[in-house]
Amino acid sequence: MKKELPACPVETTLMLISNRWNVLILRDLMEGTKRFGELKKSLGNISQKVLTANLRAMEENGLLIRTVYAQVPPKVEYTLTDTGYSLKPVLDAMVQWGIKYQLQLMIKQSQQAGTFCGFCNEEHCAHKWIKYCTRKIHKQIINLSKIFLKTVP
Fold first, then answer.
1. Could you read off the pLDDT of 42-68 as tens digits, one per residue?
2. Residue 75, SS3?
3. Helices 20-29/88-113 angle, 10° precision
4. Separation CA 107–CA 114 (nearest Å)
5. Integer-rounded Cα radius of gyration of the chain
C-alpha cells in the first residue's frame, strides 16, 4: 500500500513524531535496543495498549524494528532503523531548545520573585552563579546552565 505524504517536509516529520510518546520512545531507543518492559518503565505513565499501538505505528513507518525471540516467556526487542536514528539531530535540537527554555523560564521566575543576587542578570554568567548564588533555585539554574553550555555548539 502506497503511503500519501504531505507536500510540506515539516508536516511529513510531524506526521512521524507528532505525538508525545513517539518522541519519548525515539529518545529512549537512541541509546540502543530496549525490551518492551524497559520502554514502559522509562516512559512512566503510559498504558500497555498505547505503548503497543505507538510501537506498531513506528514499525509501520520504518522508524524501528521489532525482533521477537521464540522462547518462554516471549522476548521482544525494539531497535531504531537508520531512518529512526536519522531523527537524532531533530531530538538534539529539541533538547537544546528545551534546556534554553527551562533556563529562561527559571531566570524569569527568579527575577519576578526577587531571588537573584544581582550578578545573575548578565547573559552567560554561570561562573558568577556558582560563586555568588546560594538559594535552591540558583542551584537548579547552575545545573541546567552546565548542561546547556556543554550542548551548545
1. 998 999 999 999 999 999 999 999 999
2. strand
3. 110
4. 10
5. 20
Please name which of 105, 114, 110, 100 lies closest in space to residue 138, comparing C-alpha atoms: 110
All cell numbers assigned to 95: 533538547
Q: What are the E-state strand segments in 2-152?
A: 34-35, 64-69, 75-80
Distance between start and end Cα atoms, the chain = 42
What is the tens place of the pLDDT at every residue in 12-48? Answer: 999 898 888 999 999 999 999 999 999 999 998 999 9
Q: Are 76 and 68 in contact (CB under 8 A)?
A: yes
Question: What counts of helices (H) and strands (E) characterise the chain?
Answer: 8, 3
Q: In which order are the strands placed within the sheet that holds 64-69?
A: 34-35, 75-80, 64-69
**Which residue, among 128, 134, 131, 136, has the nearest Cα to 109 in the 3D structure?**
136
* 90 contacts 13 by C-beta, under 8 angstroms: yes
Instruction: Find out whether 129 and 116 touch, Cβ atoms under 8 Å.
Output: no
